[in-house]
Amino acid sequence: MDTTRNTVLEAWMAEHGYSSNSLADTVNRALEQLTGRPGGLDGSSVRAWKAGRVKWPKSATRKALEDVSGLPAVALGFVPWGRARPTAAPPQQEDSDMKRRTLVGGIAAAAAAAAAPGTASPRRIGMSDVSRLNKRFAEIIASDHRHGGQLGIEQQAAELANEALNLQNAGSATQRVRSNLYASAAAFRSSAMWAAIDGRRYDDAKAHMREAQALAEMSGDQAIKFRIWSHAGTMYRHMGRTADAFAANDVARNLHLTRRDPLFASLGLARQGAIHGAAQDPTGTRRAFDQAQDAMLRADPADYRPVWMLAFYDQAELDHLALSAYLALGDYPTAEFHAHRCLSALRPHMARSRAITTTRLAHAQLAQGAPEAATTTAMKVPADAATQHARVTRMLQEFGAALRATAPGSTTVQTWTEHAATWRMAA
């Protein structure tokens, strides 16, 4: 049996960043869309294609591969049964190699010509275009961590989502590239949603959510589906709609991804714990955070995860969510414990989280009868966060009202009033 390597397929896989296992997984998903049943390929199947042991895959597999690549099978170096194939004669090895290269090259060229409309080739959209968009997305995420809740961040993220969708119509692309573009657009729209939640613009957040959910379904990306539904749970928690918060967060937690990656399971459980706190359920809160901590310890830091996950979820964020939950429950010593642990572990760029955590720590200290310590803590919040971040501004106003009720007419209240005035003057 002739087992000449399929160098055309190997080159295409290298160009598009596929390993044997990842291509098998992608073709399996395409097979499921075609036939309604999951494909049974694995890395050894693709290695058989590359080695030339399989010259012409079965019809359904071939169609799925063509859908994934955007090319006819012959353009990927496959040769239909019955077609004349190159033969190797040992005394004329150079001749044989030249014939093989001519045949493979001729097949690829003919297929490419057949696939191109007219004489002008359309622009080819590739993973480099997706990477360029995601690099700009990373810059938006960094800005969100510094400032948070700003309308400008929301608008930038929404515009980037539109740019990703426009790119879908700018040229030809493989199924993999198109799926990645939809996933990126969903991620960008999800960030616009989060900025609106953080700024307490809930009607805008719900509009972004609906758009993000539709894009996520088209992408088939479980990680971005998790992010959107998890954000929805947080949004409803902030709105005081705990039943809806549980329902939305459960959608995220029930995705297969959370069984495959303990870090996603941990985030889902930590946000569930925060909802239990808002619902005044101390038992559910403790159980959820114990499970979230256990899942985080089981997670492999070396596993691949999307940029938005790596950018924020760690031990500090878990403690940040626990702080919110125990503060809502009125368990102020436990809330203070998590606040200190969060602040000690926060990465330097997490300015928004630091401001929120510091403000919540001040609330926990005040509720334990320590107005002086609480005021000193609250005064550490930077002026820009105190005046420009809707959540921080509201919490500081509530802190001032609670301080005046706790220690009316005291020098501590006077100190706080004067300090708050400097924030307003700096705004």
What attributes characterize this protein structure?
mainly alpha; 427 residues
In short:
The chain has helices spanning 7-16, 20-35, 43-51, 59-69, 93-115, 127-146, 151-168, 175-198, 202-219, 222-238, 242-253, 257-260, 262-278, 282-298, 307-312, 315-329, 332-345, 351-367, 371-378, 383-388, 390-406, 411-426. The chain has 427 residues and is an all-alpha fold.
Structure commentary:
By secondary structure, this protein is mainly α. The protein contains 22 helices and no strands. The chain has helices at 7-16, 20-35, 43-51, 59-69, 93-115, 127-146, 151-168, 175-198, 202-219, 222-238, 242-253, 257-260, 262-278, 282-298, 307-312, 315-329, 332-345, 351-367, 371-378, 383-388, 390-406, 411-426. The radius of gyration is 28 Å and the shape is elongated. The N and C termini lie far apart (78 Å). Mean pLDDT is 84; it is low at 82-120.
Distance between the termini: 78 Å
Shape: elongated
Total number of helices: 22
- Structural class by helix and strand composition: mainly alpha
Radius of gyration: 28 Å
Poorly predicted runs? 82-120
Q: What level of helicity do the residues show?
A: over 70%
State mean pLDDT (0 to 100 scale).
84
Estimated share of beta-strand residues? under 5%
What's the total count of β strands? 0
The major beta sheet can be summarized as:
none
What is the ordering of alpha helices and beta strands?
HHHHHHHHHHHHHHHHHHHHHH
